[in-house]
Automatic annotation (TrEMBL):
<dbReference type="InterPro" id="IPR013216">
    <property type="entry name" value="Methyltransf_11"/>
</dbReference>
<protein>
    <submittedName>
        <fullName>Methyltransferase domain-containing protein</fullName>
    </submittedName>
</protein>
<dbReference type="InterPro" id="IPR029063">
    <property type="entry name" value="SAM-dependent_MTases_sf"/>
</dbReference>
<keyword id="KW-0489">Methyltransferase</keyword>
<feature type="domain" description="Methyltransferase type 11">
    <location>
        <begin position="42"/>
        <end position="136"/>
    </location>
</feature>
<dbReference type="Pfam" id="PF08241">
    <property type="entry name" value="Methyltransf_11"/>
</dbReference>
<dbReference type="GO" id="GO:0032259">
    <property type="term" value="P:methylation"/>
</dbReference>
<dbReference type="GO" id="GO:0008757">
    <property type="term" value="F:S-adenosylmethionine-dependent methyltransferase activity"/>
</dbReference>
<keyword id="KW-0808">Transferase</keyword>
């Protein structure tokens, strides 16, 4: 059973919950892309700018435009050092406010499952990138257990508790991404699985941070107190059995890249 749509409005909370994960996976993603410096980039669904900042630190871009539909997330992004280089603006992934062939590279970091029509979003990425340009994404495997919040979400499902799901969660599978890239007419398509780990000093640190996530926070707040406590204890047993006092666990993302034909 699924809840309502997933919304990301609080940039500071997103940073605490997902910013660390985004950078962990983003580092491996950029190592794999290995782009030259001096490119013009568009970061679609930039959110609070976590990946945008990493892109600037790692890749020496000459220009970066971050686009996101959340004013709250963008406000946080504009407080980052990245704002000295990047321009952040409100926009829709399916109707990008840029001319054709305006960029050397387009990227979506952990976003494509939240685009209501991924094929249309792909068409827009292709449109705004120059011939020969790079188009790439990485996304948590939402179906096969790769999402960082899965320790909580799987216990919620076992209790029959509804929680929001991304509208296009199935597009996180590698074969679905490959289909999107092929159907968009891209060339030199390559894929990679990215596995990362995060450590919390104690279970309460894990719970206090992750229970704030929009994906689960509203559902937990709506639960009866005894059910919320039962969920917490189920997750504690799930994680502590494998990790002792602290919590170390992994997440997995699927990545894909390709080139617009010249």
């Amino acid at each position: 059973m699924a809840g309502g749509p997933v919304r990301f409005e609080d940039g500071a909370t997103y940073e605490e919950v997902m910013g660390v994960w985004s950078r962990l996976a983003g580092d491996e993603f950029l190592d794999w892309l290995s782009p030259p410096s001096g490119l013009k980039w568009i970061d679609i669904g930039c959110g609070n700018g976590a990946f945008t900042e990493l892109l600037i630190e790692r890749c020496g871009p000459v220009e970066v435009h971050g686009v996101d539909p959340s004013d709250g997330q963008l406000a946080y992004a504009r407080t980052r050092p990245a704002a000295r280089v990047a321009t952040f603006q409100n926009g829709d992934a399916m109707a990008l406010p840029f001319a054709e062939a305006a960029f050397d590279a387009a990227v979506m970091a952990l976003v494509i499952v939240f685009v209501s029509d991924p094929a249309k979003g792909m068409a827009e990425m292709v449109r705004v990138v120059r011939p020969g340009g790079l188009i790439a994404t990485y996304v948590w495997d939402m179906i096969d257990g790769g999402f960082p919040l899965d320790p909580i979400l799987e216990e919620m499902r076992a209790m029959g508790i509804a929680h929001p799901r991304p509208p296009q969660a199935g597009k996180s599978r590698m074969e679905a991404l490959e289909d999107l890239w092929r159907q968009a007419g891209l060339e030199a398509i390559e894929t990679r699985e990215i596995s990362v780990q995060r450590t919390f000093p104690a279970f309460d640190d894990f719970w206090n941070i992750n229970s704030k996530a929009s994906t689960v926070g509203a559902a937990i707040s709506a639960m009866a107190a005894q059910d919320a406590l039962a969920l917490k204890e189920r997750v504690r047993r799930r994680l502590s059995a494998a990790n002792g006092g602290g919590v170390t666990y992994g997440a997995r993302a699927n990545a894909i890249k390709g080139r617009k034909p010249k």
